[in-house]
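Structure ticket #2291
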Amino acid sequence: MSNKKREILIIGIVLIIQTIIFIIVGANKEYIHMDEAYSLGLASYDKVEIQDNEDFYGNWHNKEYYKDYLVVNDDEIGEYSQVYENQKNDVHPPIYYILLRIAMGFSINSFSKWPGIIINIIIYIFITIFTYLILQKLLEGKQLCKEKSIILALISSITMSSLTNVIYIRMYALSALNILITAFLHIKLYDSKEIKPKLLVLIGISAFIGSLTHYYYLFYLAMLYLMFAIKYLKEKRHKELIYYTVTMGIAGILSLLIFPYSIQHMFFGYRGQGVISKLINIPQFAESIKEYLKKINLYVFNNLMYVIAVALIILAIYKLIKKQKLIENSNSYAKYILFPTLFYFTLVAVASPWIELRYVMPVCTPIFIIMIYYLSELLFNIFKEKASNIIMIVFLVAILISPIVFKIESEVAYSNKKEIVAKLGEELNLPTIYCFNSENNRFLDDILLFSILNESYIARDMEYTEQNIKTIFNNKDISKGIIVFINEGQENDEILEKLRKATGLETWTYLERLNACDLYHLK
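Resolution: structure written out below.
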């Protein structure tokens, strides 16, 4: 067998292994996050919010009413205009939602988590391939370079951040792929000693797709552009700089021609204004970075980032004491991964509306790559190759087994929701009232449960008088009790007591804390 065929075989085996792991993790996903519900609704519904329906509040609805937001129905087959229209009225560009809409077309009339997860599984095949290609360039010239690269690529694909990214039905996996492709193409551009039109076209296409996937991608691209512009200016390669700049400009213009609403979203929409205000809030800077580092530690390095960081510091101090260069013959590609990744991480950490892993998931793989690369370089500069390999193996094995030791779970697996989903769908499928405080509108966080409940009523900012409650439950069979959802900002016990008296039910039982509300059974 030739070396090329052997390489392809090994990569194929790795991709099969990771896909099996992804399917297992996906099968154990029991619930969805609010933004995942948005993904499904924005890709299939005729408006951004189901709550915008005139009949949403103050009426009884069956489960089909809510399921309609989460699925593609028979009469919606072949319709895609609402995808673009919804994104115009929301805060994200449209490419991911078009892909999701296509995938949802394979599951007509029924809710399924699998279209979104399968998209991400396919995306991660390419993420692992490009991770391998980048690692190969970083480890170029090292013994067993290809073998080490594919092992590291596999490990990076099954960290908790990657597993979360795979089963999270959002655009972040696609954005992660865009970033890795952009990084790899720029490494190829770095190697190019003359203008290669084909390479520039590929860079332009990646920039075009990336900007239409997620706006934060532009942070990464901006730093890469700046670094290459400085490189070309220093080397007096003005012609290359002009062609490179024109390529980026064309990609930007085409992106705006396809989706001109990007300008509104980024600079004038509520999310864009929020980003700008947070970027100039200096006191919040350090706190945001600290909180995001906790996320990276837990999910990218499976709780071992600080151990690796301490090892890096000790090794660096040792080199300084010995009056040696920190990195001998440092790979020139590394900085083109390091600085754009740091720039993206820093800006997103400060600018993101909440401290959540999803906003930095697109650079979790580059963070893993660059930290492991510098650790291996320091080790190989100090120890003999055999000792260095053993130390690296210990670190990597520890990363793999630490989720079992520390009982770390993907952020959006929601394995603890399995019982309540089954219980409400079968044993407790009773008339349901959602006592809704509109000042904390996160209804979509729990829409999945409403899509399995036979009849439910959303009571928005209601005065819970005996007459109002009796009117709601008039002609409803509540002999086996009712289910009550109460979201934040309300006096739960007071509402439950009023419901109990008005319905004639005797007691209430606390069932579960859901994503955005508390759940009770009155009987």
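Closing remark: The two ends are 70 Å apart (CA to CA).
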